[in-house]
Amino acid sequence: MAPAIRTNNLTKRFGSLTAVDGLDLTIEEGEIFGFLGPNGAGKSTTINLLLDFIRPSDGSAEVLGYDTRSESIPIRDRTGVLPEGFSVYERLTALEHVEYAIETKDAADDPRDLLDRVHLDREAHERKAGEFSTGMTQRLALAMALVDDPDLLVLDEPSSGLDPTGIQEMRDIIRSEADSGTTVFFSSHQLPQVEAVCDRVGIMRDGSMAAIDTIENLRDDAGGSTTMELEVDPMPGPDELSLSEFEGVVSATGHGDVIEVTCTDPSVKVEVVKRVDATTTVTDIVSEETDLEQLFNQYTTDGDHAADEREVTA
Amino acid sequence: MRNLTAIARRDFLDARRSLLVWAVFAFYAVIALLIFGGPTLVGGDVSSFGIIGLVSTLGLFLLPFVALVAGYLAIAGERERGTVNFMMGLPNTRKEVVLGKFLSRGALMVAATLVVFLIGATIAATQYADPQLRLFVPTLAFTALLVLVMVSVAVGISAMTASRSRAMAGAVGFYFVTIPFNLVPTVSVPGIIRYVTNDLFGMSLEQDVFNFIQVLISPAMAYAQGLEVVTQRMWLNEYATDVPEESKQQFLERLNDQAWYLGPEVMVVILLVWLVAPLALGYWRFKGAELG
Lengths: 314, 292
Description:
heterodimer, A: alpha/beta, Rossmann fold, Alpha-Beta Plaits, 2 domains, four-stranded antiparallel sheet, about 30% helix, B: mainly alpha, about 80% helix
């Protein structure tokens, strides 16, 4: 079985700017793939290449086994697209939008069912899309993408403009599509969207993949570090604790009455707490795993591992 | 080509709800009432031949303008607004987009033209002393063809440009170069060519050659030239009963004296080329365009 998406040295240059730089990416069938990266990293350019909106400067790509350049129609026939930077036809109703997609794809869907699925109120079905809020527009676009039960869903920043309920509903739809065998490829610059649903994530930076793996593995690669917050009274003076002496402590900072300690080796936590408690009184302890936000920042800011920056003030 | 009709129907639906389109229709209807109905109010013997001469002159300036307005945003507008991402995310080819847009805008303009002629023919049949209704047939045929050609030009320009402002510049430029400027010898393309060939190089090319260049570069001029000859011939042969036979023959001779390449059949060919070429060129540019 051909992978859902395979790019081969995919490159796109705009003048002197290289937006996508020799990308080799394989997405297996049925996978939910989160395509992460800061704005301008080349995510939308990659998606536009896959849909033949723009043409590669070098390399090639296949979607569902079809070449993106010569076989774009069969690709788009079996793919549901929620494009980036789209706008709706202001004078057409929500229903007419979905009917248009159904007609174009020669599908048998009931447009109202699809609009119900994306939780667009019945009252809005007959309204002109020009009056819609960003969130409603996003739901409408998702309904259009779901037409004809696509084999691949390509969603470019699907959660932008959605409220938390909308984001949750979007996730549920993505999951249920994946359960029915649809491959989901979606981009986001916001981690929580991806963390919650994705089997695998790729982090794009400056046109190439900085990292690609499951979230657990990425966490391990990033050092599998743990952050601990100790609430103390009183706050000890600088250099009084020298916590960075411990093997496995990455950083220790103090602000207000909280000392924040990040360590790569969880077993050192007890030693840290003991030393702090010997100097002052610990009133509260909060320990958490590295959240993906930090992981994301590690991959997308300068210096691949933030752990290199040892900062000790407490 | 199922998608072709889907695109055209959706675009037609969109346009039908646009105020601009209704404004154009209303404008057309008012013009039709003025031209066809106005003279009957003044009184006297009104015949269709005189009125249709007026229609072709007015049509020369007005129809291309309206058709360009109706079509110049067809694709460029979608690209600027971002709706093109929907259209191209669906399994539509770029050829279907260009042709679908031409179909919907063309249908719209032809419908408006039919309304005008329906008003005109009704007024002529009921109010004119001499209705000469058969003259409406070639006039409608030529006018409908011109309207379609100008929509093709507009959609072609629209397909070549990525933004509203460029499409507008293209449409305005086309209008002025091929119509008003084309009539002023000092700035027209044939006038400039004549200056080079006849004045600078002393060649003595005859006026018909420059008249041909004038109609060749301008579908509206080809329309006016073709329609004029056809309706004048028809009038002389069928309706000009009160004109003495001698002057009739003189008139016909003058018409036949023009070079063959200024004949109505050639004008139809020029118009047909203009119908296809802008769409083909527009498609060729749009096919290679980068969207999004």
